[in-house]
Specification:
Layout: H1 2-9, E1 16-21, H2 30-44, E2 49-52, H3 66-78, E3 82-89, H4 94-99, E4 101-109, H5 113-121, H6 123-137, E5 142-145, H7 148-156, E6 161-163, E7 184-188, H8 197-206, E8 211-215, H9 221-228, E9 234-238, H10 242-250, E10 254-257, H11 266-273, E11 278-281, H12 286-289, E12 297-299, H13 304-316, H14 318-335, H15 338-349
Parallel strand pairs: 1-2, 1-3, 3-4, 4-5, 5-6, 7-8, 7-10, 8-9, 10-11, 11-12
């Protein structure tokens, strides 16, 4: 109780150029890397930046309560704060965005939030979140989405949404990979049911001679670990730093992302930049990045046989793997660089017309 009172007494945000609000801002996940890249560039250009996230704001670390508790605690922390720009990421950050007094309020969508909640928690909860989502979207001056598919969904709901994609920093890629097995298939990201992790488990049971690494942390972790213990060709690494996660990707033969729902995945961009072939489900932003047979292979979500077959094809057809890796690298370097994305955000903010300080 004393620590909470102390937190309340120090919560008023001083005047800043930009306040960034996000449930997560650390780790190897896509949203965290997006926040890290954006905040780092703003600070390098001399802008005063404050970050409100679960790293510095109390939340209830229980499945189903983390996002709602962050929405409440971040809003309380934001009350009385003043900034030129508040940039909120995903719907749970919207109450804090509304509470802050700001010249420009920006809300970035990293996927179709209410549909993801519906998948995880059922239709009743999803319907309630959908109602709140529609209200929250009206609080923003500017709405952006990291994938074209998400932008189209929200435009169909009647909102003006600007597409600004995720990005990858080509200058921060490791020079050497980290290989645990001679043939290595990797998943990196949040351990949550909507990511299709059970599909990976079933696919791993169908292939021989290949080993699977799962890198990340999340609410599905304990269940996944119990199921994976029955497989000899699967190892869970747990949560690691971003640089180490990139080294695991660089040392792998294939990256898999068989999600049921997905925005524009940063981990796919990173694998492409590292010239590691990708096998992903044909959903959401995955289809924007992965052109089947050209920049990766696409499979149906929830189909372990397709996933296993695509992985084996990448491993066995070396020319295909090399061609996919080359084309994917060209696409990510041309279209998804941080220099381009950062300039677009500065224009949205109204800061120096995107030219920096």
């Amino acid at each position: 109780m004393f620590s909470f009172i102390l937190w309340l007494s120090n919560m008023v945000i001083p005047l800043k150029d930009v306040v960034v609000v996000s449930p997560t801002s650390r780790g190897s996940g896509g949203v965290a890397q997006h926040i890290d890249g954006l905040v780092g560039r703003l600070k390098s250009d001399g802008y005063g930046v404050e970050v409100i996230s679960s790293s510095n704001t109390p939340i209830i670390r229980v499945k189903g309560l983390m996002n709602p508790s962050f929405a409440l605690s971040s809003m309380v922390k934001a009350l009385g704060g003043r900034c030129h720009v508040v940039h909120a990421h995903n719907i749970p950050s919207a109450p804090a965005m509304r509470a802050l007094r700001a010249d420009v309020k920006v809300l970035t969508l990293h996927g179709f939030y209410s549909e993801q909640v519906k998948l995880l928690h059922g239709g009743a909860v999803g319907g309630l979140v959908s109602w709140f989502e529609r209200r929250a979207l009206r609080w923003a001056d500017v709405i952006t989405a990291v994938s074209k598919s998400s932008a189209e969904v929200y435009r169909g709901m009647g909102y003006d949404v600007r597409f600004i994609p995720n990005a990858v920093d080509l200058n921060r890629l490791p020079s050497e990979g980290l290989r645990v097995f001679s043939s290595q298939v990797i998943y990196v990201g949040r351990l949550s049911r909507e990511k299709g992790l059970d599909t990976i488990l079933e696919a791993a049971a169908k292939v021989s001679g290949l080993n699977f690494l799962i890198v990340g942390w999340g609410p599905y972790g304990p269940t996944l670990r119990a199921k994976a213990s029955k497989l000899k060709n699967m190892r869970l690494i747990g949560e690691v730093g971003h640089d180490e996660a990139l080294r695991y990707i660089a040392g792998s033969d294939v990256l898999v992302l068989p999600s049921y729902v997905e925005g524009l995945s940063t981990v796919i961009l990173e694998a492409m930049a590292l010239k590691v072939p990708v096998v992903a489900s044909a959903v959401g932003g995955n289809t924007e990045l992965v052109e089947d047979g050209v920049t990766g292979l696409l499979v149906s979500p929830g189909d372990p046989e397709q996933l296993a077959s695509a992985i084996e094809r990448i491993i066995s057809e070396r020319n295909l793997a090399a061609r996919i890796a080359s084309e994917a690298y060209k696409r990510v370097s041309n279209e998804y660089s941080w220099d381009r994305v950062y300039r677009e955000y500065l224009r949205v903010y109204g800061l120096e017309d995107g030219d920096g300080r």
